[in-house]
UniProtKB/TrEMBL annotation:
Pfam families: Erv26 (PF04148). This is Erv26 domain containing protein. The keyword Iron-sulfur does not apply. It comes from Pyrenophora teres f. teres. GO terms for molecular function: COPII receptor activity. One of its GO terms (biological process) is endoplasmic reticulum to Golgi vesicle-mediated transport. Keywords: Membrane, Transmembrane, Transmembrane helix.
Length: 479
């Protein structure tokens, strides 16, 4: 057989790999639990040590275990307990910690040698019967797991290296001689000092969901797993990093501006205030787009021709991905100004906005999650404003025809709901428009009367007619 043995070897390798990953994941998770519950972990470790010592004493008197090895195990666990004095902090150069590491190795070796040399075979009438003085593999494995390895592994998961402890904890033990700090409470120059930026509420002290001190007081097991993971990630890094379009350098540049100034700018072109500015530079930095005719990569050309409203939608999408409420508010305000009726937009622009916000999630045209529906309400409000203030009848009809597809069902439902909720206001708006038109008609009549030539009688007739219309209009307004 050739294939089956190969499959066996592959299975062994994969099984060992999965077992290693499972152990590493378990240690990492336990380390995070200990970070969350340090007081309980310390009490549990003390109880584990007392329990193991009690088991060793029982094994000594009941099962006649060797006195020397049992005494070594009891003393070793007493030294293990000394590492809990400043739990969960441990200094890697502490003599007690180094002695504990040596005792773990010594206990493992001596107990392994003890069980490898069983007592001589006792004579009985059945030479092939099992000698009950010889422990089974299960019993030996249980002894090693509970009495030799349990407490050292628990300490390995729970204790935190002194190099990972913040100097602000005020512990000379953690930051004294032998640690990575020059003097107690003082970090070396290479240590990254914490700095916060008030703009937008972003600082280096942002807490993670698991623990604010994650990465600063991490357990040794977690630090080892994290270090291996970072090493593997470093080895597998590509030569070039291709970011998706929504992480375009210009967008990231605006985010950095927002961090420091609480604002960002679209930087429009001189000839068109709704398009991003372009320049024909040899080096295209993260503020301006390259010229259209320049040799550029797909990433550099990702924002070529982008409009201001789409730019702000992309910033809003990044804010959603970063869970950054301040940037979302800024992008929303920018978008609100971009669709304001003070700067009229075409029906095509509003149609694109409808597609970007009302397309079902997962669709190619959908740009933002918009879980609270704020952008959808803004777009509907912009459409209503343009319909009542800017667009003529033909433009309104063109827009209505452009949003009749099934993908725009959400927009039509929201539009109708807002129309029904504001029906009274819309009636008042129509009435005001009619009154304004009538008033303008009176003004036009007066101007026409003044320009009429051919005698006072004709001029007076126009004036009287204009006054009559004005009285009628005044009466309507007060009714």
């Amino acid at each position: 057989m050739w294939i089956l043995p190969l499959l066996g070897y592959v299975g062994i390798v994969l099984g060992f790999a999965f077992l290693t990953l499972a152990i590493a994941s378990g240690l990492y998770y336990l380390s995070e639990l200990v970070e969350e519950h340090t007081v309980f972990a310390k009490k549990l470790l003390y109880r584990l040590i007392y329990g193991v010592v009690a088991i060793q004493i029982l094994l000594l008197f009941v099962d006649k275990f060797p006195i020397g090895l049992s005494a070594l195990s009891v003393v070793s666990h007493g030294i293990y307990a000394q590492n809990l004095r400043r739990f969960p902090v441990v200094k890697l150069t502490d003599p007690l910690f180094l002695l504990s590491c040596a005792l773990v190795i010594a206990n493992h070796y001596l107990w392994f040698r003890h069980f490898s040399a069983p007592p001589p075979h006792s004579y009985n009438s059945y030479p092939y019967s099992r000698d009950f003085n010889i422990p089974t593999f299960t019993e030996i494995a249980a002894f090693f797991g509970l009495c030799v390895w349990l407490v050292p592994f628990a300490l390995f998961v729970s204790l935190s290296a002194g190099e990972n402890v913040l100097p602000s904890m005020g512990s000379e033990y953690a930051t004294g001689d032998g640690s990575s700090y020059i003097m107690p409470g003082k970090a070396p120059e290479s240590f990254a000092s914490s700095s916060g930026v008030g703009a937008g509420g972003i600082s280096s002290g942002v807490e993670g969901k698991r623990r604010a001190r994650s990465g600063t007081n991490a357990g040794m097991a977690k630090a080892v797993v994290t270090g291996v993971r970072e090493w593997v990630k470093y080895l597998s890094q590509p030569e070039f990093l291709n970011l998706p379009a929504h992480f375009h350098p210009i967008l990231i540049d605006r985010i950095v501006d927002f961090i420091y100034t609480s604002d960002y700018h679209f930087c429009p072109a001189d000839d068109d205030v709704t398009k991003l500015k372009q320049k024909d530079f040899v080096f295209h930095h993260a503020t301006l787009l390259p010229a259209i005719n320049a040799n550029k990569s797909a990433m550099a050309a990702a924002l070529v021709g982008i409009r201001d409203y789409e730019f702000h939608l992309r910033m809003y999408a990044l804010a959603e991905e970063l869970d950054w409420d301040a940037l979302k508010s800024a992008a929303y305000a920018k978008l609100f100004g971009a669709v304001d009726a003070q700067y009229p937009r075409s029906t095509e622009t509003l149609t694109e906005l409808v597609k970007a916000t009302f397309t079902p999630p997962g669709g190619a045209a959908r740009m933002c999650k918009d879980e609270d529906g704020a952008l959808q309400q803004l777009v509907v409000a912009a459409v209503l404003t343009h319909e009542t203030k800017v667009w003529r009848e033909d433009a309104r009809k063109a827009f209505t025809d452009s949003v009749q597809g099934p993908e725009h069902d959400g927009f039509r439902k929201t539009y109708k709901a807002i129309m029904q909720a504001n029906e009274d206001l819309l009636k008042v708006k129509d009435m005001v428009k009619e009154l304004a038109a009538a008033r303008q008609k009176v003004i036009d009549q007066r101007r026409k009367a003044k320009s009429v030539m051919g005698g006072d009688d004709k001029r007076n007739r126009f004036l009287m007619k204009a006054q009559k219309m004005q009285k009628t209009q005044f009466k309507k307004e007060h009714d």
